[in-house]
Amino acid sequence: MKKLILIILFIFPALVFSQVDIQKKDIDTMSIIYKAKTFTISKHGFKDIESQISSLKNMPYEIYGTNEFLFIKIKGNFFCEEKGNVVTFAWCECDYYVCYSFEKDYFYLLGGFKVNDILPFSKEYRGSLSSVNWSYRIKDQKLNEFLEKITLKKIKEADKIFNKCIDSSKK
Fold first, then answer.
1. Is residue 32 within 8 Å of residue 100, measured between CB atoms?
2. Which domain of life does this protein belong to (predicted)?
3. Do the Cβ atoms of 66 and 101 come closer than 8 Å?
4. Where are the beta strands (DSSP E) in the chain?
5. Which of 10, 52, 74, 166 is the most buried (most CB within 10 A)?
């Protein structure tokens, strides 16, 4: 009977505090996603703050994650040049990949960006538990391939997996 009471005394606080952590993580996740979306704003921007905020809130995204990292795929746009009979400028679609490190409270720009943070990300990722336990079963095939290359220390190959959301005529 004493053992049962001791077990309950130890397990109950752990359950209560784990629920608080889960709630805190849910609240923080929306802030993390919103900030990740701000990295995708084109240098050409928008006309006013209200439309910019509305556009960021409505950007479609997908999240994949573990306790250490939150991977965010954002369906965004970039200002591009379309060549046809007449050269025109328009918004072209592109996928941006951002990773948030819970441990370092830091964002890594992985894909879609002109400049990325693959090398610093690879160092942290390879030192994490995720790289040891990774099963490569994320729904996003490109992200799976990217993480596999990072784990195998093939940084140059990993850098080529994601498209860059820049005008190909200005690379």
1. yes
2. Bacteria
3. no
4. 61-65, 69-82, 88-101, 106-111
5. 74
